[in-house]
Amino acid sequence: MSAVQQARSNIPDCIARIAGVIGSDQFPNGERAALRRMNPRQNPPLAFYRFAFRHLPNGWERSMEDWITLVAGIALMSPQAHTADTGLGAALANCGFSEARLERLLAADTGTRRILLLRTARFLRAKNASCNWIEPAWLLLSKDNDRREQLHRRIAGDYYQIVDKE
């Protein structure tokens, strides 16, 4: 297995570990606050580098803006950011996220998607909701258009399955 394939196969474990570390009672509040304030369009604080070198997978530097977004989003929603059994689409539908906002998120180019994903994390946090952060991770980290389109369909399918019931 190549290094890239190994890193991809470890994304679920990595996301669970990140959420666990940031959400832990032992994680310093000041560090969590610094991670929450991050913006992928700005240089990250030293707290991000400290966190990244300890907890992110090898090669994170190649997708640094994506990892900044993921860490910031998880920090925003901590301590209960990651729930393995609630997909992003289902979490958004359950919280009343508008169809137009979902469409913008899924159709956005990479740079805009990062900002919209952070806004989505803030929305979910305001509703005291959590989601499976593996889907947002793949939204950002996947460079394969077919795989990303499959993910769009899964998120939209989960969203509409709940919206249509209501």
The geometry reads as globular
Helix content: 55-70%
How many structural domains can be distinguished in the coordinates?
1
Average pLDDT for all residues: 93
Radius of gyration: 15 Å
| Name of the level-1 CATH class | Mainly Alpha
Report on the biggest sheet.
none
Task: Describe it.
Helices cover 69% and strands 0% of the residues. With 166 residues, the protein is mainly alpha-helical. The protein has one domain: Peroxidase, domain 1 (Orthogonal Bundle), CATH 1.10.520. Helix 3 crosses helix 5 (64-77), helix 5 runs parallel beside helix 8 and helix 6 (88-94) runs parallel beside helix 10 (145-165). The longest helix is centred in the last third of the chain and has 21 residues, at 145-165.
